[in-house]
Design brief:
It is globular, with a radius of gyration of 23 Å. The strands form three sheets. A three-stranded antiparallel sheet has the order 2-7-6. Helices cover about 40% and strands about 5% of the residues. It is mostly helical and about 575 residues long.
Length: about 575
């Protein structure tokens, strides 16, 4: 996996910028502090690297909770992850945490303090973009960098900004486009661009950066932007443009004369073709530059490596954090009571190893522990690479006592289980990780673009082409090929494949919204949330298989869904400044 090799310290990453223009001086003034400091930072290549590292850290961090409690919602949530909001894992048990509040009351534009409670730290996007422009506008001052190096850095910063706009595009629709560092004599109240203008700008930035980026950096610079990432950002923006939420003649809710902020105003099949073409470019580039879908015939190992192992051949870009916060938040033992446990709905997306459906108990139906362990062992390898069963050691770290179910000081214990252990504890991003405590999160993985192509070809009524790309991913998973050609049936299979292949990789929340799935309010995001509950030999004592007597499915809580939740709210404090139009329903 190509990872950002610079050590990004907590000090660099934990900057706090309130909201977009909540304090104009904070946004407009050079964040380093003064012209003298800017000149100093860009006085040598070595010093400039700190500004470049900060740009990478800021731009790639959003959406990934990298601390247990992001009090100012700098990145997105006060407790919780995108996986909580998507319904992949059940919400945390603490009612003061954002994941609990959003799953039970939805996203809001104002939590009482002027901050939005949503999936994004809106202002931090622009703080990140500003840092990128700071580098672009000052990198020419560095005396010991070649002109070619400077041009590459400018293209990297341009692409980092395109990435941030792409992330906002799928969350908000059209957003304000800031194209330079703003100064006090400029009009800083920039209105939202239309959906089409926002998409066009993302594509333009990718296309402009592409010629100046290398296919590969020197080993010491691995993890920086390449031509492949420019293609990837473009392809991701285009698949979201093609899906029904935006690719429609009418928006999900009316915004009156401003409907073009959240809807293209037409349903155009060409958008699906554009998505095919862009994703095929990614796949072709990857093949020419040493990347591939990992398939040695050992599905658990192959998938485990693809989602976990630094330097693997499938990940085009990853986010690496070296201060341990990521491990705390994404590993098993940071919070108890099933809060980091897979939901029953997510469990139902997985198949048995032979490709057949697994049969689980009905709500309230008691079954014994033998039944539970039999069914767990029958699950497909991607489940075993992503979760661990109650009382069993992690399949993806075999023989490692640190990942033993009864090691209360290790990574995988079931602390605070209180009878609700969910349907598997997350272990996905630590395949054979031992005691590694830094977090390595795949942002662009090659499998994404195979599923993009499969999805888009199906919408273009080309099922044979769709199956070609879908079955590459199925075969790596150890599952039999799909042969279904009915459009509606194949769409469901592809969407299910997305749910399994990209479990907890920040896709599901946006996939189900942009697909406008029929059951989005009935078990996916909203509706009854379920998990496993167990009975034990000696109360809650004991952590190994022999301590479990039986299990059932129980309803845990009722999730919230409303039409306005398709897109995220802008903070009310920004809307009140009369430069930004709020998304409907907030």
């Amino acid at each position: 996996m190509k990872i950002f090799k610079y050590i990004i310290s907590a000090t660099l990453l934990m900057i706090v910028i309130s909201s977009f223009f909540s304090c104009e001086d904070d946004f407009l003034r050079k964040p380093i502090g003064s012209d003298l400091n800017v000149d100093s930072i860009f006085s040598t290549k070595q010093k400039a690297m700190s500004a470049i590292a900060k740009a990478y850290g800021n731009s790639l961090a959003s959406g990934i909770n990298i601390s247990g409690w992001d009090n100012d919602r700098t990145w997105n949530l006060r407790g919780g992850t995108i996986g909580h909001l998507s319904g992949e894992i059940n919400a945390t048990k603490f009612n003061w945490e954002d994941s609990w509040l959003i799953q039970r009351g939805g996203m809001v534009a104002d939590d009482g303090s002027g901050l939005a409670r949503s999936d994004d730290g809106f202002g931090f996007n622009y703080a990140s973009i500003r840092q990128n422009y700071l580098v672009i506008e000052n990198i020419d001052k560095v005396p010991d960098m070649s002109d070619e190096e400077k041009r590459i850095v400018k293209a990297e910063m341009q692409l980092l900004s395109a990435y941030r706009y792409q992330e906002m595009f799928k969350r908000y629709g059209g957003v304000p486009l800031v194209k330079e560092i703003l100064t006090p004599d400029m009009d800083v109240k920039i209105p939202r661009a239309t959906l089409q203008e926002t998409l066009d700008y993302i594509l333009e930035q990718c296309d402009e950066a592409y010629p100046y980026l290398p296919d590969k950096h020197d080993q010491s610079m691995e993890g920086r932007m390449t031509k492949g990432i420019a293609l990837a950002v473009k392809a991701e923006a285009l698949i979201y443009a093609a899906r029904p939420l935006f690719n429609s003649s009418t928006p999900y809710m009316s915004l009156g004369s401003h409907n073009n902020l959240i809807c293209f105003g037409s349903a155009d099949k060409q958008r699906w073709q554009d998505a095919v073409d862009a994703s095929l470019e990614v796949i072709q580039w990857a093949s020419a530059n040493g990347y591939q879908i990992i398939n040695t015939g050992d599905p658990l190992r192959d998938y485990g490596i693809a989602v976990s192992t630094p330097g693997n051949k499938e990940v085009l870009l990853a986010y690496k954090l070296q201060d341990g916060f990521g491990q705390q938040n994404y590993s098993c033992n940071s919070q108890g009571g099933g809060c980091n446990g897979m939901s029953f709905y997510q469990l139902q997306q997985y198949l048995k190893v032979d490709g057949a459906e697994q049969e689980w108990p009905a709500v309230g139906e008691e079954r014994n522990a033998v039944d539970y362990y039999t069914r767990m062992e029958e699950m497909e390898p991607r489940y075993k690479a992503s979760a661990m069963a109650a009382g069993r050691d992690a399949w993806n770290n075999p023989g490692d006592t640190y990942w033993s179910s009864n090691n209360v000081t290790g990574r995988s214990n079931w602390e605070g289980r209180a009878g609700n252990e969910a349907c598997g504890r997350r272990v996905k991003f630590w395949y054979r990780a031992g005691t590694r405590d830094w977090f390595n999160f795949p942002l662009y993985r090659l499998a994404e673009f195979y599923l993009n192509v499969a999805e888009a070809y199906n919408e273009l009524d080309k099922p044979a082409d769709a199956l070609t790309y879908l079955n590459v991913i199925r075969r790596r998973a150890g599952l039999p090929d799909v042969t279904v050609t009915d459009k509606d049936a194949l769409r469901k299979i592809i969407q299910r494949e997305w749910a399994v292949e990209f479990y907890e990789e920040m896709h599901r929340l946006y996939d189900v919204k942009h697909w406008k799935l029929k059951d989005i309010g009935n078990g996916i995001i909203g509706g009854s949330k379920k998990a496993f509950a167990f009975t034990y030999l000696n109360g809650n004592d004991g952590w190994t298989e022999s301590d479990y007597l039986g299990y059932t499915v129980q309803e845990v809580y009722n999730g919230f869904w409303a039409q306005n939740q398709y897109l995220s709210p802008f903070p009310k404090s920004e809307v009140n400044k009369d430069y930004i139009i709020q998304n409907p329903g907030y």
